[in-house]
Design brief:
With 201 residues, this protein is an alpha+beta fold. The chain has 5 helices and 9 strands, in the order αβββαβαβαβββαβ.
Amino acid sequence: MKFLPLLIVFFSTLFAGDNAVSEGYQPGDKATDFKLKSVDGKMYSMADYKDAKGFIVVFTCNTCPFAVKYEDRINAIAKKYKKQGYVLLAINPNDPAVQPADTYDLMQDKAKEKGFVFPYLVDEGQKIYPQYGATKTPHVFLLDKNLVVKYIGAIDDNSDDASAVKEKYLENAIAALDKGSDPSPAQTKAIGCSIKAKKKV
């Protein structure tokens, strides 16, 4: 029995560590705005869009195979929902020193090649993605016009095949937001590559 207190301390520490890992926003939190440079050389923030009904913030990149599979879908979503008043902003959170194919110049090439209709932004200094709690590329955050987080997670339920998608999580969440309802589910698991963080010295 003398080991029981030690076990209690061990498991308490273990679960406390798990809780500490889950940082970033949860549905219902208010997000902080940002001001980031896009591939067109201009700075963008959500405050620039006074009449927006909401914001689709997508953490993505040039290189992750999952992000590449979603490029056309993200572009289509941006086109579709721009007409309905929603602004899509894509942010590349990867450190180009860790992932050389995610440099600003190569982001410009990617945006031109794919005909991106949305700002493709650089998270310089990797300050924004930790605030949001993004862990994958792609990782989506749907915000209402007041920057309240309404949905977090995956775009849909099939990263491999757009034609085989059964659940369009993001689009369903936008539809709920349009009706004044809270999306259900409000959170799904993002499927993608880990964000390439700057190596600590």
